[in-house]
Amino acid sequence: MRFFSTMATALAVGQTAFAAPHKDHDSWGHDGKIAPKVLIISLFSPEADIWYEKLPSSGLGDLLDHNITAPGLSMLFPHVHCVSDHSICQMTTGESEINAASSVMAAALSGKFDLTKTYFMIAGIAGINPKYGTLGSVALAQYTVQVALQYEFDAREMPSNWSTGYFGYGTDAPNIYPGNAYGTEVLELSATLRDLAYGFASKANLSSDPTATEYGQRYAAVQNTSLYAPASQPPSVIKCDSVTSDVYFSGNILGEAFEEVTSVWTNGTGKYCMTAQEDSAVLEVLVRLAIEGLVDFSRAILMRTGSDFDRPPPNETAFDNLRIADQNGFDIAIDNIFNAGVEIVRGILDGWHTTFHKGVEPANYIGDIFGSLGGAPDFGPGSTTNGTGYKPHGRSGDEMRRRGVSSGMGRKAGYAKRATVGRN
User: Fold this and answer.
1) CA Rg, the chain, in Å?
2) How far is CA 6 from CA 43, 97, 126, 221, 385, in A?
3) Secondary structure (3-state) at 310
4) What is the H or E stretch that residue 192 is in?
5) How large is the angle between the packed helices 330-350 and 191-201, nearest 10 degrees?
6) What number does CATH give the domain 33-356?
7) For the chain, domain boundaries
8) How confident is the model at residue 343, as a pLDDT?
9) DSSP state letter for 74
10) pTM of the shown model
11) Counting Cβ atoms within 10 Å, is residue 354 exposed (0-12), middle (13-18) or buried (19+)?
12) How far is the C-alpha of 275 from the C-alpha of 305, rounded, in Å?
């Protein structure tokens, strides 16, 4: 969920030819392709502009030193930008799931990059749940949950004993794990890398704003004040999870419904604190590329900063919270993308030869609901490949079809513990 703003600002930067190799040979693949250590993924102009404006003063380089085109990138954001030695690159996908997936896949398959050792950092603003943080807070996620991937009734037509019109595919009531799995419902990232990124980001001096602080303090009027205490605290770095929805939702009812979805779909582990439009799309692309050996999914980082609250404080309507009230969180959220993000980038570069070149072994399961990368998911029905993962070049897909395995595998008996809610 993001503050509305124009997307029609194409970057007026010139295209340059590939530069001669820099002395840091790690930034070039063996076949002469660009091999960035970090690829920053922005979603729209303000999230990208802050890197162009501030990175040069950090001493880490200027992202506009190299501007590389590739077929299939967004027509509004047609370049991948890199510093002079190509150790850091950045791209802007355009907002929404379709734009995000299309752009990342286009860059990865362009033939211009070797991304096998690259760390991917999704770095964008988001709506924030006041139970976990405040405007300007920085969240690092282990899960992203595609909460809108469900059936939906208009709330005026749902059964009278339901709390939401959303309920999972193949089910008959809310708060039950989907009976039909598409594969992108939940994506889990390396908690080990997330914790390292959290440590780096915690060094940042985060921006705040008096108006945003005052708005957050309004949640203290909630009857259970301790529940919303984080909203009235200064911005901080937190560990909690992201939900993905192209629908820009707002309000207590939907916020609480998607909190429950996040909990149920992650087997009680996930904690929804940030809402955005692209995370599941970007990470699903990385899963598919990882199957082919083109990227390392354990090198993905998801960072979001709070620009607006996902539900109103007491005595304010959901409409006023979304469209009328001046929460004043946008600018500090943009600032804190850089403030926290540059510390993560610096930490990876500084520790490249000692830690990050070889990779950070995850201590938890990583991947999607199908177990596509191997291992046993700690949510959902379990691996569709008995833990082996899918083979590249489509070989496992043909084998799975011959065995009768499909995205309808969630229908098997005993798949979900039914909730107490039901039809009226």
Assistant:
1) 21
2) 12, 17, 16, 34, 44
3) coil
4) helix 191-201
5) 110
6) 3.40.50.1580
7) 33-356
8) 98
9) -
10) 0.89
11) exposed
12) 10
Quote the CA–CA distance of 206 and 335 in Å, as a whole number: 8
- Higher-pLDDT residue of 22 and 292 is 292
What separation in angstroms does the CA of 290 have from each of 130, 188, 360? 35, 14, 15
Helix axes 45-58, 330-350, angle to 10 degrees: 50
Mind listing the pLDDT tens digit for each residue in 25-49?
Answer: 566 666 889 999 999 999 999 999 9
- Distance (Å, whole) CA 257 – CA 64: 42
In this structure, what DSSP letter does residue 297 have? G
- Taken in order 393, 398, 403, 408, the sign of the CA dihedral is positive
SS3 99: helix
Mean pLDDT score of the chain: 89
For residue 189, which amino acid is it? L
Ramachandran angles phi, psi of 74, nearest 5°: -55, 140
Give the pair of three-digit tokens for residue 190.
């390396």
Q: Give the other-Cβ count within 10 Å of 69's Cβ.
A: 12
CB 204 within 8 A of CB 339: yes
pLDDT digits (tens, 9 = 90+) for 152-161: 999 999 999 9
**Token pair for 176:** 């039950």
